[in-house]
Amino acid sequence: MQLVKPQDYSTKQIQFIEEFESALAVLSKTSNILIGAKDIYSRHIIATDACARMIGFSSGRKVKGKLDAEMPLLATANYAAKYTQEDQR
């Protein structure tokens, strides 16, 4: 699997992400499952509502575009550099 920069996403990849966002929105209404996704720069693409609430947001869609360092929950923000290192591995 090859990693792709967000600016280089194909139409098919963008469509997949949009469908994934819709699926997580439905999951958020029916469960408290914790799911999130980031791009290759460790920027959040989407998360379930339950995941978003754990880090200080009211919904998964509000996580979109944020880095861990920008999370309201200091326990997440304070370890952002470590999380980015883990993401890159």
Describe the structure.
The structure is a single chain. Helix content is 44%, strand content 8%. With 89 residues, it is mostly helical. The chain contains 4 helices and 2 strands. The protein is flat, with a radius of gyration of 13 Å. It has helices at 11-30, 49-54, 74-77, 80-88; strands at residues 36-38, 44-47. The protein has a two-stranded antiparallel ribbon.
Q: What would you call the quaternary organization? A: single chain
Tell me about the largest β-sheet: 2 strands, antiparallel
Q: Rg, please? A: 13 Å
What would the average pLDDT be, to the nearest integer?
93
The best one-word shape is: flat
Q: Give the class from helix and strand content and strand pairing.
A: mainly alpha
What distance separates the N and C termini? 14 Å
Number of strands: 2
| Element-level helix/strand string | HEEHHH
Strand order of the largest sheet: 1-2
Tally of individual helices: 4
Q: Could you list the spans in which at least 5 consecutive residues all have pLDDT below 50?
A: none
- Percent of residues in β-strands: 5-15%
Helix proportion: 40-55%
